[in-house]
Amino acid sequence: MTEEIVRLGLAALVALGILAAGYLGRRLYARIINRHTGLTAADLADRYELKRGQTTVLYLAGDRCAQCIQLQEPALNRLAEQRGIVVRKLDAPSEPELLGRFNIATVPSTIVVGPDLSVRRVNVGFADAETLEEQIA
Predict the structure, then answer these.
(1) Are residues 63 and 103 in the same domain?
(2) Domain count of the fold of the chain
(3) What's the pLDDT tens digit per position in 26-44?
(4) Is 27 exposed, middle or buried (0-12, 13-18, 19+ CB in 10 A)?
(5) Do residues 70 and 117 touch, judged by C-beta distance below 8 A?
(6) CA dist 18 to 15, 21, 30, 75, 107, Å?
(7) CA dihedral defined by 46, 121, 78, 55, rounded to 10 degrees?
(8) Are 14 and 43 part of one and the same domain?
(9) What is the mean pLDDT of residues 47-52?
């Protein structure tokens, strides 16, 4: 009986350790991603056709990304129609410099660039229309 309690206690400690590591890892990654907010993207203007006075979303996707096609693209299309923003769809594997610069490790991902050519937000993973709406407002 005592041995079972010790094993159960150890299993609980291991589970808590795994949860804590996951939580801290996610928080650290979020800090790394959010450090780009407010920085200029003017050096990307020519390459990605960013224009002053126009909000642009750089949308990184992959050919085999179901979430990109089924969720992210409809949300971006709706936003483009309603708000008149420009969406530039980019093939993520063809953009290693951009992925590295913004610490993007998955698709879909979006980079919201404001009319002043500053980075408003980097979203790693699916960002719904409401979230994107708040970021471009």
Answers:
(1) yes
(2) 2
(3) 787 777 777 777 778 889 9
(4) exposed
(5) no
(6) 5, 5, 18, 34, 25
(7) -40
(8) no
(9) 94
What pLDDT, in 10s, does the model give residues 67-81? 999 999 999 999 999
For residue 59, give the amino acid letter. Answer: Y
Looking up residue 122, the CATH number of its domain turns out to be 3.40.30.10
Could you tell me if 30 and 67 lie in one domain?
A: no
Helix H segments across 1-137?
2-34, 45-48, 66-67, 73-83, 96-101, 129-136
* Per-residue H/E/C for 58-75: EEEECCCCHHHHHHHHHH
* 30 three-class SS: helix
75 and 130 part of one domain: yes
For 34-52, give one letter per residue: b (16+ CB within 10 A) or e.
eebeeeebeebeeebebee
Domain, as residue range, for 65: 38-136
